[in-house]
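Hello everyone,

My group is preparing for a crystallization screen and wants a predicted model to guide construct design. The compound we'll soak is zinc ion. Before spending weeks at the bench, it would help to have a computed complex in hand. I've included the protein sequence and the ligand's SMILES below. Output in structure-token form would be ideal because that's what our pipeline reads.
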Amino acid sequence: MKKNRIMILGLLVSIFLVNCVASSNLFITSKIPQKRDNLNIDQKNSDSINFNPKLAQLSGNFSNYNLSLIMDETNSMVEGNLTVDFYNNDNVNFTRIPFHIYLSGMAYYTRQGRIDIINVTDVNDPNISFPFEVYPTSQIMWVNLSDTLEPHKRAQFKIQFNATIPDGSKLPVELLDRANSYGNDGDQSRIYKFASFYPIPSVYDNKDGWNIDSYLTTGDPFYFDMAYYNFFIEAPTGMIIAATGNLDEKLDKGETTRYHFNPVYPVREVTFAASRYFQVQSKISNGVNLSTYFLPKDAYLWNNYALNHAEDALILFNASFGTYPYPTLNIVEEYTSFGGMEYPNQVYISEVFGNRGNPLYVANWFLEKVIAHEVCHQWWYNLVGNDEVDVGFLDEGLACWSTDYYGEHYYGDWEYFQYTLYIDTVRSYYALNGLSSKINQTVYECLATDTDYWYVAYTKAPLIFEKLRQTIGLSDFLDGLKLYFTRHQFELVLLSDIQRAFEDVVGHSLDWFFFPWFDNSFLPKYSITHNSYNSDTQNLNIRIIDLNEPLNDYNYSQQVPLHVYDASNSLIFSQTVWINGTTELSFSLSTRPRKVSLIYSNYVLVQLTDYFDLTLDSFIPFESGWIPGYEMASFLVISIVLIGFVLYDHRRKIKIKR
Ligand SMILES: [Zn+2]
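Reply:
Good plan to model first. Here are the tokens for the complex, ready for your pipeline.
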């Protein structure tokens, strides 16, 4: 009983951790309206149109990898061969190339994950060895090349390795990491999940040189170039395999079966999951073979919903951002301590949602949210990639915004999947935590500055994208995302690339938006430091300052509704005004005003101490020489007190006389 409670608590806590930002599941009943059926986008049954997306011809300047595996079920491992045809897309000569060998950095219960490099040899002659060095603490292997690799040239070699995935444990849940073999054969629940399980080349860039970061526990610490893959898996016959790419060939060899998967277009990495118990559902939608893989224990949930959610996400994101070009997309159940995890062509969704005694509609709310989120990473992470250590908030913030856009599209509410609204969390974040919250920081900077990476990437970043959407309008916002996608698919981007895409759509600089909202540590905190009304000129003058301006690098500009009231508290004037740093405003009013209020409704972003207190009031002082009714009242009160005292004193004197 106690164990159960600890587990449930652990699951609730852990659900905050990675990828899926979902909070407590207990009170969302009111947020479950009927789903709308695809509003304007009628592609759900497009198979008959024979819609087969094809990209423009790619340049072909990508690395090519042949990854060939033999799976050993008993030992949760694979024997692997990676044939590398590495393309140098940088203007630098290389004499060696680093590869991530992440598995030993992952959490485990009793069996640590590991990648053992057996040898690195010439592609054609196994007797010609390439020297290599392994650095276990940073999970990096360097392969020394036989010749200097010049820009735009290729280097070939073959890496032979063995990879064992960690076991895992649900107690504590944090021991279930991105790769694990977990579950039992007795109750048909065992899954082998192979992720980050082979040597993956690091990325070289102008900022960091080689990016050889170890496996980090903050964020999704991945950063890979696109490459063509041929992916071969030989597994015990009877295993059901979900893997990156189209199944080009399946060869039954008796005790084992050999599969050839081919993503067709470049991807950043590959993954596979194997289980003897997976149930599979598939359909062709938008020219994509869409499949779900799930355990019998969760069929009641997945069987009803998962494929539909995945299809709804594919339809919406295809139409909104640009075409998903690959032939396959898999949604695969996994054991994790977090909501889900994205990989190219294949995303994983945690099995926790049905485990907590959740009513079906609650489990389904989680399932739909996480499927939409992870599917969206096909656009923001795989097709348009970024350094998730340096700018992880970029793909994560966009994936979160897009998940909420999915909620808006299908349920009419951008906040549908936000149990706690981003806007409330962000406006009261400083009051509750006393922490700064600059978005544009690397994972290392976040750790050094005590910034909560999860908060900035999963809550503040999507809110800032929503602020931009509300500022430039949905049409321009979506056009900006489309342009960003079209320009940068198969590439790696920086924050400035998405800014430029939006700027090219709206036709002017957006420095004024991007710099303060992404680079400042504190939200604006307005104060009305001066207001006055001159009855002769009938002018109301107001000065608004941002008290947090000295703490930030850039001045904020945003629109804020302003209301003016008379002495009887009736609204006599309202206007939405721009507040740009310290702002002086002047209005002509025929009625004498008594109070000025800034109204923090909707998506005005300010630092609040109480998120229910959404107005900033300021009373207008009276001009000198004017005796208002208000002050007459005080005069009367004082007079009555004085008269009372005089009468009392008079009676006392009479008493004494007696
Ligand atoms: Zn994510």
